[in-house]
Amino acid sequence: MAHKLVFVDTNVLMELLFERSNHDLAKDAVLALSTDDIACTSILSVSTLLYFVELERCDKDTAHNFMSGFKILDMSQEDYTWAAANDQGDFEDALQTACARRHTCSPLITFDKKFDSMYGKFLAIHTIR
User: Fold this and answer.
1) Mean pLDDT of 88-104
2) Would you say 110 and 125 are in contact if contact means Cβ atoms under 8 Å apart?
3) Model pTM?
4) Which residues lie below 8 Å from residue 56, measured CB to CB, with a gap of 6+?
5) For residues 14 and 31, what is the distance between their CA atoms, to the nearest angstrom?
6) Angstrom distance (rounded) from CA 88 to CA 6
7) Nearest CA to 72 among 112, 39, 110, 28?
C-alpha cells in the first residue's frame, strides 16, 4: 500500500513542542494517523517553530529531535507563485496550501478554524476541535 502524506500545520507543531493548552488534542490527531500515513510539514513551519524556540530560549536540540519525527517538505518559487495567485487573505496559509498541494498531501491538519473556509477548496483540511 502506498504511503499517504498528511500535512501538519505550524500551529499543531507549536502545541506539541511547547506543550500548550491544546497539546493533548494535537497529540491525539497525530497519533490517529494510519501506519501508512507520513506526517509532514514545510520548511516554512520548521523556520517558524525554530524562531519561537530561539525567542523562548528553549533547547534547539530538543526541537530538532522533535522535527525528526516529521518529513520536511521543501518549498519553491512555484509555491510562492501559486500562493500569490490564490491568496484568500492569509498568505502564510496560502504558502502552506501550495506546498501541501505540490507534494500531494491530504489532509492538512490544523487548529486554524478559518483555514478550511479559505483553502478547503484546494485540498482536504482537517480542523482539530
Assistant:
1) 97
2) yes
3) 0.95
4) 18
5) 16
6) 22
7) 39
**In angstroms, rounded to a whole number, what is the distance separating the alpha carbons of residues 82 and 65?**
31
C-alpha distances out from residue 74 to 59, 96, 121, Å: 24, 11, 22
52-81, pLDDT tens digit by residue? 999 999 999 999 999 999 999 999 999 999
Q: Is the pLDDT of residue 88 over 80?
A: yes
Q: Which three cell numbers stand for residue 26?
A: 494535537
Contact by Cβ (8 Å): 42, 71: no
DSSP H/E element including 41: strand 37-42
- Maximum Cα interatomic distance, the chain, rounded to a whole number of Å: 42
Count of CB atoms situated within 10 Å of the CB of 85: 9
Grid coordinates belonging to 86? 490564490
